[in-house]
Write a structure and sequence with these properties.
DNA binding, 10 helices, two-stranded antiparallel sheet, 240 residues
Length: 240
């Protein structure tokens, strides 16, 4: 599973780079998409309809659009392989349970478990947070202790996955249809942890935002606490 998750990470980076190249080319020629969502079906159709005065420019755009499509399809194949092979993995039960948490779907849950391994090896939630580099650093001078930002000393891939998931807690409490389907198959204890996480973290974000904290600071603080709920579910559900 590790090789698949790392391959997906490389595919995501490759797709992002190809899209940046296309965006730069269009910006250079003052072409701006007026739709609401980029890289959806409507946006891709718009890209294919663009024409340039010089044939060389047209060929370049067509090749870039084709490369973006191939990168997108590659990413889709890798994600499909993760979903197909996941049930045979020893940590599959924990991956399934982690999807009870808002902002965490299959690929993110698999990434967390690939990077963290058995969560039972962390005796406390804070120990797990430290492994992620999501605990605040400090600087001591005499009797003065100054709090710093998070240490970022731990597993960067795992930290990024949790920070990306934490962005969803900016929005009001809700449980979508897909999440309801996931929750139906999980133990009551896991459902309770997930709901406690959502109520706690949504309130946490609102409190930080109301105090004027920067968006990234507030989301990172939410990710810090989200790690604790991930740890709690990992301790609740045993691997095969």
């Amino acid at each position: 599973m590790l090789s698949l998750v790392r391959a997906r990470e490389a595919a995501v980076d490759d797709l992002r780079r190809k899209r940046q190249v296309i965006s730069s080319l269009l910006l250079k020629h003052d072409r701006a998409y007026s739709g609401k969502t980029t890289w959806g079906a409507m946006h891709v159709r718009w890209l294919q309809e663009q024409s340039f005065a010089y044939p060389a420019q047209q060929v370049v755009l067509q090749e870039m659009v084709l490369a973006e499509r191939h990168a997108r399809e590659r990413l889709g194949r890798i994600e499909a392989a993760i979903a197909e092979l996941l049930p045979n993995w020893s940590l599959a039960p924990v991956v399934e349970a982690l999807q009870a948490l808002r902002g965490i779907r299959l690929v993110t849950a698999a990434t967390i478990m690939v990077e963290a391994g058995d969560l039972g090896r962390f005796e406390t939630a804070r120990q797990f947070m430290g492994y992620l580099g999501l605990v605040p650093g400090e600087r001591s001078t005499g009797n003065t202790v100054r709090r710093l930002g998070i240490t970022k000393a731990g597993n960067g891939r795992l930290r990024r996955a949790l920070v990306e998931s934490a962005w969803t807690y900016r929005h009001p409490l809700r449980t979508g249809k897909l999440k309801h389907y996931v929750l139906e198959k999980l133990p009551a204890a896991v459902k309770d942890i997930a709901w406690k996480a959502q109520t706690r973290l949504c309130a946490r974000y609102r409190a930080l935002a109301s105090r004027g904290k920067q968006l990234t600071v507030a989301v990172t603080a939410v990710a810090h606490e989200l790690a604790g709920f991930v740890w709690a579910i990992g301790r609740e559900v045993k691997s095969v």
